[in-house]
Write a structure and sequence with these properties.
Shape: globular
Low-confidence stretches: none
Radius of gyration: 15 Å
Number of helices: 2
Strand order of the largest sheet: 4-5-6-7-13-12-11-10
Number of domains: 1
Distance between the termini: 21 Å
Order of helices and strands: EEEHEEEEEEHEEEE
Strand content: 35-45%
Helix content: 10-25%
Structural class: mainly beta
């Protein structure tokens, strides 16, 4: 898969044996036409309204905002949907064993990073990196990568 910040992710497994691109302009109907979700879940809260589509076998979640446009794409450990290929931005593989390994690679590229309660984000890329075990150290397994799309 290749990330084009805020715009699209290419070659995302569809859950039915193929791959398809997801663009920021995609809506729920377009994505459902190409992807085989195992579960769709709606959220209707004062702080968030949207839909989440899950491809459990691929460890992928696709989020949609209140306008039903794609809002984010999350890939979870063990990143099996990537078939050992990786998730790339500018020929850099963003999948690493630990958050600290990835941070070192991004730092070399001059990417601005911002700490969060569960890992860190790269705001200029629209990508967040998480660990279930994160407390104060980035020397923990990378558990999820979330690509945020422009709304």
């Amino acid at each position: 898969m290749i990330v084009f910040p805020f715009e699209k992710v290419t070659d995302v497994p569809t859950g039915s044996g193929g791959n398809a691109d997801i663009a920021a302009s995609s809506d729920l109907i377009e994505v459902m036409d190409r992807f085989s979700f195992q579960t769709l879940r709606a959220t209707n809260k004062s702080y968030f309204r949207g839909v989440s589509g899950y491809l459990f076998d691929a460890q992928i979640l696709i989020g949609f905002g209140k306008d039903y446009k794609v809002s984010d794409l999350e890939i979870r450990h063990p990143f099996s949907c990537l078939n050992g290929e990786g998730l790339y931005w500018r020929n850099l593989n963003l999948v690493h064993a630990t958050l600290s390994d990835l941070q070192a690679v991004l730092r070399k590229e001059g990417v601005v990073m911002k700490s969060s309660e569960v890992g860190f984000g790269a705001p200029d890329l629209g990508i967040s990196f998480f660990s279930n075990d994160y407390e104060n150290s980035l020397d923990v397994r990378m558990d999820a990568i979330t690509v945020h799309f422009r709304q």
